[in-house]
Design brief:
heterodimer, A: about 600 residues, mainly alpha, two-stranded antiparallel sheet, B: 2 helices, elongated
Chain lengths: ~600, ~45
């Protein structure tokens, strides 16, 4: 089919936007540089300069709006990424189920989109209202970029609506490619929006392009954008968004599965839940490595900042992080184990579940073991020191790195078992292939444990160094095992998968995932932001407001929980809206 | 050759050897790339 004139014009418009967006960014930066625009330095407001409005706590208000906006934005940005991937798979395989599912994913996104904008607007208003000096300074640093952001937001809205509403009219043949191009543009714009917002947040943590003592703008917008923590945060948020989006739509699928009475509808939502869980795990597996890189860059930028995070006042929150990540892993694995009952062959793998559970639970316990305990004098006497003689070594990073890597490897094993349960290999070398995979797991896990032991007995620099082979070992196991499987299962005999043959309790695991993910994101977002301690812009502009303090762990926990509960209430409303939109009243007789 | 691959235990032993070689080389290269003296014994005496 040949494109008509309208299609050509639209394609040209898309191309134009692709070329235009980076040009605007560079032009805005260069124009300011050519004009020699500099400012005297960062403002240094006193406490009296901060507006007090009706006794409201400025910090908590901005915290709440920012976090809610971030939750919704992460979801709204992530879903189009895997929706387009699914649409592509559906187009390649000619399986319309993928296309329908991608469309349904987008339907949920549409309900959440206006709420994202609402909280984004509230956040901007709150920032300008409570922190005018900071916003004035940031606008001077980022200049034209503050204009590009709303333009991109407009483009995001246009492409999102066009992508969703043109789904059925651009469904087959060349029109499908055109539709996917719109989806690609939507994702490009969405990611650009996130990268810009990340630049502002990371500039406040690791400012660049400004004078380090006065804060005077001496560089271009690009120099301020490309600050030391920008790319680590970009990568971490990109990967985390995929995992988060998968978890949220998994919750939607579970909601619909439990609410449905018809067998075929249950089967559809079971399949949707499985796919969502797969996306969440696929995004989650590389996430600790992106987080590790971010923390390493934080330490490289400022050791003090790193120590505040992991050895200072915020360190205990990392224990809560461990509990939440352990919960995510247990829930994701439990769902996969329940999924083995979908095939008649699945039962033969069930006997291995208990061993995987031992590793996951064992790793979880190692991870939650704190290094430094808050003890009374009597307790120290009873313990014989400040650290337990057996459990103490489990509190430091080599043990925790070993635990998390083994948990990731065994989560992948659960995924592999489920994948295998519906396929019988027909190649002659199947037994040899299985042996190669078993050997890979054995040696890879031994290597992870030995690197952990090596890291424990050697000085700190080796501890950090030994974590890298552990990460590469985990990734090697995943990549090699998946590659061998891919070749071994070519032309494999497919077993019937009984979609919908799932226990109802398995669906609650899908509910646990978005709750734990949301809580975790709230927690880690708080830690990332609090690393600046009493600075608006680290070491450049002090926060002198009355609410500039590090909350107690209890207060932080309560605030994060309240935000998480509010977000989950909104999500239930969004799910309900989606269900309401799909139902219709029967005509009265 | 095909006889070797038909004996799964032999394949297991061979695969164990191959993976030991792979992971050992990988450890060595990664530690060296980080500027850490891999030949030096760091074990506590």
């Amino acid at each position: 089919m040949v494109f008509n004139n309208t299609s050509k014009l639209l394609a040209l418009f898309i191309l134009f936007i692709f070329i235009l967006v980076p040009d605007i960014a560079i032009a805005a930066a260069d124009a300011a540089k050519e004009a020699g625009q500099t400012i005297a330095g960062a403002p240094q407001p006193t406490r009296a300069d901060y507006p007090i409005i009706g006794g409201l706590n400025s910090r908590t208000m901005v915290w709440g709006f920012a976090q809610m906006h971030l939750f919704l934005a992460a979801f709204v940005l992530a879903v189009p990424m895997f929706a387009i991937a699914m649409e592509y798979v559906g187009h390649l395989t000619k399986d319309e189920r993928y296309d329908a599912m991608a469309h349904e994913f987008m339907k949920i996104t549409m309900s959440a989109y206006s709420l994202t904008a609402l909280f984004g607007g509230s956040l901007a208003l709150a920032l300008f209202l409570f922190y005018p000096q900071l916003m004035e300074y940031l606008m001077k640093v980022f200049r034209g970029q503050f204009l590009i952001y709303p333009v991109l937001f407009l483009l995001e809205s246009v492409t999102l609506y066009v992508y969703y509403y043109s789904w059925n009219s651009l469904r087959y043949g060349n029109r499908k490619w055109f539709h996917m191009t719109i989806g690609l543009l939507l994702n490009t714009v969405g990611l650009s929006l996130m990268f810009i917002a990340n630049a502002w947040a990371t500039f406040m943590m690791s400012p660049s392009g400004v004078d380090p003592t006065t804060g005077a703008v001496i560089g271009t917008v690009w120099e301020a954008t490309r600050n030391p923590l920008w790319n680590p945060v970009n990568l971490h948020r990109f990967v985390a968004n995929i995992a988060y989006g998968g978890a949220i739509v998994g919750g939607y699928a579970a909601y619909m599965f439990l609410a449905s009475k018809k067998k075929d509808v249950k089967a559809h939502y079971d399949w949707m839940g499985y796919t969502s869980n797969f996306i969440a795990i696929a995004g989650f597996l590389p996430l600790p490595f992106a987080g590790y890189w971010l923390m390493a860059e934080i330490y490289a930028y400022s050791q003090q900042m790193g120590i505040t995070a992991m050895g200072g006042i915020l360190a205990w929150l990392f224990i809560i992080q461990a509990v939440l990540i352990g919960t995510i892993m247990l829930a994701a694995n439990y769902y996969l184990w329940c999924g083995l009952m979908r095939t008649d062959r699945g039962a033969q793998y069930a006997r291995y579940v208990k061993y995987i559970a031992v590793v996951i639970v064992g790793g979880f316990l190692v991870w939650v073991t704190p290094h430094s305990l808050i003890l009374t004098t009597d307790e120290i006497r009873m313990l014989g020191g400040t650290h337990h003689k057996f459990l103490g070594p489990l509190g430091i990073m080599p043990a925790k790195n070993t635990a998390v890597n083994l948990m990731l490897v065994f989560t992948f094993l659960s995924l592999q078992m489920f994948y295998r349960s519906s396929r019988v290999p027909t190649v002659k070398w199947a037994k040899a292939g299985n042996m190669a995979i078993i050997a890979l797991y054995i040696i890879g896990c031994i290597n992870i444990v030995f690197a952990g032991l090596y890291g424990y007995i050697t000085p700190t620099v080796y501890k950090v160094g030994a974590a890298v082979p552990q990460v590469v070992s985990t990734l090697s196991i995943i990549v090699f095992a998946a590659t061998i499987d891919a070749f071994m299962l070519r032309g494999a005999k497919s077993e019937k998968v009984h979609w919908g043959r799932m226990s109802e309790r398995s669906q609650y695991a899908l509910f646990v995932l978005p709750v734990a993910f949301t809580w975790l994101m709230g927690l880690m977002g708080y830690i990332r932001s609090s690393l600046r301690t009493h600075w608006h812009v680290y070491t450049i502009m002090k926060d002198q407001s009355a609410d500039a303090y590090i909350p107690t762990i209890g207060q932080a926990g309560n605030t994060i929980t309240a935000i998480t509960l509010s977000f989950m209430a909104i999500m239930v409303f969004v799910f309900w809206l989606s269900r309401l939109g799909a139902s219709s009243q029967e005509k009265p007789i | 050759m095909s006889k070797v691959f038909s004996n799964k235990w032999l394949v297991l032993v061979l695969a164990l050897g191959v993976w030991i070689l792979y992971f050992h080389t990988m450890d060595w290269m990664l530690m060296e790339a980080q500027g850490l003296p891999v030949k030096m014994s760091l074990m506590p005496r």
